């Protein structure tokens, strides 16, 4: 064999087969306290607390590409946390890098930050107190510490939302002349902040989710469905065939294109906009507390109900398939903001917070049995999971 060719083959082999590589899996849970201004990072494997990050106020938590974002409405700021777990996709495999989680120095400030919406790595943060929208790169902020903001104005302060859509931004519209600021619809803004076309009517607008290349926004009289790779196309599907009610919370399917929404206190609705009859209403035995979709097992979603049970929903069959009692009952009577369980999926584990007991319960997604608990000081409330598997060199 020619010497140059032999060296080339050796080099190619070295590149295609990782040297001294091992497979590793790592998952971390980030838990926000209901009352205390802090977020605790937990190692899922050991159950140990890694660290607790101080905040300005209790936070709602979101994840984007290995980062956690803590929206502190009462503290008028948003903080970014690098989870310390990064997976670099190489096509045939992914490399995993595990370091300590860190709180990023740069903070986004504004009046009453609320809806946090990510689409294709870009985030829109809506400030209810000002009606302003901040657009930024989640990756640049959380991993590079660079927070560069593009700002848009919805027109008036209100409890609204905004969604990045390529070169466009979808922004809620409210009645500026009414002191209650009722939401009227959705505007499409171009890159310069100019309104494109007419306002898309959406009374009582609340809730949004993306699934695949489609977005759904909740309205009092139906759902707005947004699609298109350039200027977004916006159409409405009314609640035909459903009893009186509306969707105000939406979650997008992952791996399967569908939406899961609330519909009244004791029902959820599976939405497939491509079907002639897009809605399938699912009755619950008691009132709903929280629900999520499963990013690992696409046909499943999970609903926690006030009787303390976690239920597995097969969204293809449209029926509940398994259930397990996780906590003592949590009544839905009283204020909506009372501390009640929240759910996160971490690989093959479903984690459920239990504020009354100061624990995070761990449920095996396959057997649907409780496999352990993690004690957390205070009132563990909001929760997100970050992690995955990859090659360690």
From TrEMBL:
Keywords: Signal. Residues 1-21 form the signal peptide. InterPro entries: AztD-like, Haem_d1_sf, WD40/YVTN_repeat-like_dom_sf. NCBIfam families: AztD. This is Metallochaperone AztD. The lineage of its organism: Bacteria, Pseudomonadati, Pseudomonadota, Alphaproteobacteria, Hyphomicrobiales. The gene is aztD.
């Amino acid at each position: 064999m020619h010497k140059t060719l032999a060296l080339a083959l050796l080099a190619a082999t070295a590149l295609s087969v990782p040297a001294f590589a091992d497979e590793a899996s790592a998952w971390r849970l980030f838990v926000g306290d209901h009352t205390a201004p802090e977020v605790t990072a937990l190692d899922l494997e050991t159950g140990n607390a890694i660290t607790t990050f101080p905040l300005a106020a209790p936070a709602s938590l979101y994840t984007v590409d290995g980062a956690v974002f803590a929206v502190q409405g009462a503290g008028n700021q948003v903080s970014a946390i690098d989870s310390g777990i990064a997976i670099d996709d190489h096509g045939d495999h992914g490399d995993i890098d595990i370091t300590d989680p860190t709180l990023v120095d740069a903070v986004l400030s504004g009046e009453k930050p609320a809806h946090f919406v990510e689409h294709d790595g870009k985030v829109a943060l809506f400030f209810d107190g000002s009606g302003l929208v901040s657009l930024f790169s989640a990756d640049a902020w959380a991993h590079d510490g660079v927070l560069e903001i593009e700002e848009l104005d919805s027109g008036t302060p209100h409890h609204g939302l905004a969604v990045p859509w390529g070169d466009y931004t979808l922004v809620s519209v409210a009645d500026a002349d009414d002191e209650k600021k009722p939401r009227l619809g959705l505007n499409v803004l171009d890159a310069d902040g100019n309104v494109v076309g007419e306002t898309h009517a959406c009374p009582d607008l609340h809730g949004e989710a993306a699934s695949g290349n489609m977005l759904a926004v909740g309205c009092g009289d139906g759902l707005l469905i947004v699609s298109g790779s350039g200027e977004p196309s916006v159409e409405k599907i009314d609640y035909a065939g459903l009893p009186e009610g509306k969707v105000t919370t939406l979650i997008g399917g992952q791996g399967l294109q569908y939406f899961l929404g609330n519909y009244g206190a004791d029902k959820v609705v599976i939405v497939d906009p491509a079907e002639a009859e897009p809605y399938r209403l699912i009755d619950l035995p008691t009132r709903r507390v929280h629900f999520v979709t499963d990013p690992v097992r696409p046909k499943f979603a999970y609903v926690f109900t006030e009787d303390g049970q976690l239920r597995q929903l097969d969204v293809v069959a449209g029926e509940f398939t398994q259930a397990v009692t996780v906590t003592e009952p949590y009544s839905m009577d009283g204020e909506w903001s009372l501390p009640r369980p929240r759910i996160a999926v971490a690989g093959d584990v479903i984690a459920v917070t239990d504020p009354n007991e100061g624990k995070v319960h761990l449920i095996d997604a396959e057997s649907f049995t409780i496999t352990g608990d993690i004690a957390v000081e205070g009132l563990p409330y909001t929760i997100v999971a970050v992690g995955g598997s990859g090659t360690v060199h």
